[in-house]
């Protein structure tokens, strides 16, 4: 009930009360008679009762939480606990006050957005308002205030589809069919509404909740465009390298078929856990895509049904005019008759490969996000700063990248960190310094002493691990340390508690000698206050039977210098567990 309604209800109660006062006509003298009715009636006037009606919201609710200093239109409250943050916007849980339902509010600082950025923001909001489908993250409100813009979306809590798959006990071809069916349903709705997503990839495929069988939701329309019918035109180079279509790479006119090509890449990964097109050299990768050079190698593809391969072939057709449409794909027997056509065999090898695939793409996003955040903290490099966040970043393909990494040229202003996509390259790129200077000229200009400093601090950290010295380890690590490591089963771990457990229950009680060797350390210096080191770690130890053992892991650590002190902010480990658990 609104305040106006509450006030009206209150006024009506007072009016009704006046009519309830009896006036006895036969009695001429009013003094002895008025005792029975008039006195008790005024007491229960419920004036304050209607006001608290719009508070079915669980604690904690904060109506004044920066940057929401003034809740937009008094419709939304912001929960004090934020959702995971992106690199270019802040996302918070919010609640609709009149219903108590929770949503996700993406908050964009618009103070320093250019006119072009404002147009892109308006375009994204306009496109999202068009799309109302159960397999698409829905926009419920778009609110502009001075200095900020709020996009209120469905609260999607199930995480990424690909992360959920690797956690399942059972995963089959039929499950992959059900996944791609939901993705195609979302794409079909987009195309029917004249929208081309242009950035279909695993990071944008989410689950509505953590419940079993939760719906797949397509997210992130920051690169989406509007088209008329089957219009083909050059809308610019946009997307993520491994999912780009041949026509985009050739810079030809394109349209809705680019989304189907990306669906074909996604389906390929869903079935075997690795992508159809891959090369360490980005130029060679693009040549593969333009030639449609993929295959179905043994032994992993031997157990995939011919119908599944047929659908992939129709999706990954080079000629967009001959490529299958979303409507036609949904009628493919492997999709619409999966109970009889798709195999029900558990695909354990696919799950294992998918774990590695997930870990690689997460690491890439984490490193690049750290690099951009570091640039943002220092205010160097000519990047636009808007209230402590980067509003819009347009990078050359090799700008701000450590040796051997390249990034796609366009970063949408409201995307999650996963929108920042890059792939390894075999040759060190030539860094590009933006106009006005301020950017690093590359690895060669940085004294080797800096690299030795990073290697030394990494050795100190590993020594603390070997000695079971959590206090020394904690001093070297950021309290919000994020990590992917074998012990976490492919999940992203944040904070120190996970690591403390191993120190207190294993490492500190281990009295057997441990020796660690760091092989082939490669240090990439990122500006003045950040660096990334990659190396192979050999750990020698004695097992319970007294036999010498050696374990190997590949590790990458991202370091950030605060107040002259280096701290480990992220690391990624693969291979055998770092701590010998035998």
From TrEMBL:
The keyword Amino-acid biosynthesis does not apply. Residues 426-446 are annotated as: Disordered. It catalyses: L-seryl-[protein] + ATP = O-phospho-L-seryl-[protein] + ADP + H(+); L-threonyl-[protein] + ATP = O-phospho-L-threonyl-[protein] + ADP + H(+). InterPro entries: Ca/CaM-dep_prot_kinase-assoc, Kinase-like_dom_sf, NTF2-like_dom_sf, Prot_kinase_dom, Ser/Thr_kinase_AS. Keywords: Calmodulin-binding, Kinase, Phosphoprotein, Serine/threonine-protein kinase, Transferase. One of its GO terms (molecular function) is ATP binding. Residues 77-335 form the Protein kinase domain. Its EC number is 2.7.11.17. It is an enzyme of class 2 (transferase). Belongs to the protein kinase superfamily. CAMK Ser/Thr protein kinase family. CaMK subfamily. This is calcium/calmodulin-dependent protein kinase. It comes from Ficedula albicollis (Collared flycatcher). The gene is CAMK2B.
């Amino acid at each position: 009930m609104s305040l106006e309604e509450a006030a009206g209800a209150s006024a009506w109660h007072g009016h009704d009360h006046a009519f309830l006062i009896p006036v006895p006509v036969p009695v001429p003298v009013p003094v002895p008679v008025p005792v029975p009715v008039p006195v008790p009636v005024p007491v229960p006037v419920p004036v304050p009762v209607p006001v608290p009606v719009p508070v079915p919201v669980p604690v904690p609710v904060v109506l004044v939480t920066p940057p929401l200093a003034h809740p937009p239109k008094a419709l939304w409250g912001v929960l004090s606990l934020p959702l995971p943050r992106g690199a270019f916007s802040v996302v918070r849980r919010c609640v609709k006050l009149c219903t108590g339902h929770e949503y996700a509010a993406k908050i964009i600082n618009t103070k320093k957005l250019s006119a072009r950025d404002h147009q892109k923001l308006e375009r994204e909001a306009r496109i999202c308002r068009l799309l109302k489908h159960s397999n698409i993250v829905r926009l419920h409100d778009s609110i502009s205030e001075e200095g900020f813009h709020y996009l209120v979306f469905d609260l999607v809590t199930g995480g990424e589809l690909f992360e959920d798959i690797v956690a399942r006990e059972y995963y089959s071809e039929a499950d992959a069919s059900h996944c791609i069916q939901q993705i195609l349903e979302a794409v079909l709705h987009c195309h029917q509404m004249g929208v081309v997503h242009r950035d279909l990839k695993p990071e944008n495929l989410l689950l509505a909740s953590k419940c079993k069988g939760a719906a797949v939701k397509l997210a992130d329309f920051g690169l989406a465009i509007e088209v008329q019918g089957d219009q083909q035109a050059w809308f610019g180079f946009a997307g993520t390298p491994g999912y780009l279509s041949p026509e985009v790479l050739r810079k030809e006119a394109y349209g809705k078929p680019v989304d189907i090509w990306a669906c074909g890449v996604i389906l390929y990964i869903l079935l075997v856990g690795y992508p159809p097109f891959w090369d360490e050299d980005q130029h060679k990768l693009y040549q593969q895509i333009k030639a449609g050079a993929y295959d179905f190698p043994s032994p992993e593809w031997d157990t995939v049904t011919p119908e599944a391969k047929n659908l992939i072939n129709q999706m990954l057709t080079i000629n967009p005019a001959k490529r299958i449409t979303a409507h036609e794909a949904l009628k493919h027997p492997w999709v619409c008759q999966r109970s009889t056509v798709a195999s029900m065999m558990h695909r354990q090898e696919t799950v294992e490969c998918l774990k590695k695939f997930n870990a690689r793409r997460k690491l890439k996003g984490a490193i690049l996000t750290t690099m951009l955040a570091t640039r943002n903290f220092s205010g160097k490099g000519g990047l636009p700063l808007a209230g402590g966040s980067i509003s819009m970043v347009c990078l050359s393909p090799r700008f701000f990248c450590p040796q051997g990494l390249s990034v796609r040229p366009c970063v949408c202003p409201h995307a999650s960190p996963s929108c920042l996509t890059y792939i390894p390259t075999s040759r060190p790129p030539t860094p590009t310094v933006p106009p006005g200077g301020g950017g690093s000229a590359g690895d060669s200009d940085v004294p080797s002493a800096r690299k030795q400093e990073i290697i030394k601090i990494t050795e100190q950290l590993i020594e603390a691990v070997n000695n079971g010295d959590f206090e020394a380890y904690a001093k070297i690590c950021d309290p919000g340390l994020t990590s992917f490591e074998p012990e976490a089963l492919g999940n992203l771990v944040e904070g120190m508690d996970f690591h403390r457990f191993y120190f207190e229950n294993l490492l500190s009680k281990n009295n057997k000698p441990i020796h660690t060797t760091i092989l082939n350390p490669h240090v990439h210096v990122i500006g003045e206050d950040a660096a990334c080191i990659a190396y192979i770690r050999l750990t020698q130890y004695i097992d319970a039977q007294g036999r010498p053992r050696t374990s190997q892991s590949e590790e990458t650590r991202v370091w950030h210098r605060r107040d002259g002190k280096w701290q480990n902010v992220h690391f990624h480990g693969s291979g055998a567990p770092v701590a010998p658990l035998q």
